[in-house]
Amino acid sequence: MTRGGDFLTEADVAVAQHQGIEAKPRGLLARLMAGVNRITVVFGMIALLVSAAILTYSVFSRYFFKAATDWQDEAAVFCIVGAVFLCGAYVQSRRGHIGIEAVASILPAAVNRARTVLVDLLSFLFCSFFAWKSWTLWHEAWVDKMTSSSSWAPPLAIPYGLMSLGISLLALQLLLQLISHFESGGPRP
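The structure assignment produced for this chain is given below.
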């Protein structure tokens, strides 16, 4: 595994080694995506901390000061939506999503590689469709200036935009992993 300009995750190297293939960097787009993933993880961590602070403030203000805060639920949800969706591509880059290791361990190597390609392909197709629909939802919210129904009434383009960007990054990450199955030096079916 190399660091610096060329980036492969430990999961990529482990998959390649398990399949008896030498792991090599996959190009400019993969390195760019790795940089974007590192940035989105930082934003995700910040968003979760902000969400925790908002919810903690809400509990204390309601309990000790009997003050209602109608904005905290939506603000916390916006932060959590951003964190979950923006970090999805990073988690996928490490193959950290839930998988059934028992199935992978009992399959022959060739069948397991085919399974991996099929799962990556189906995941890419689903996430691409989800991204397309998310961007249309964001556009509708932006054009129509939609807001939530609370008294705070934040624009719905914010969570829809975070969701759209995050699922698009996840689809791109899946595409890069799908391409790596067919590149020389990458995992192959």
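Interim note for the steering committee: The two ends are 21 Å apart (CA to CA). The chain is about 70% helix and 0% strand.
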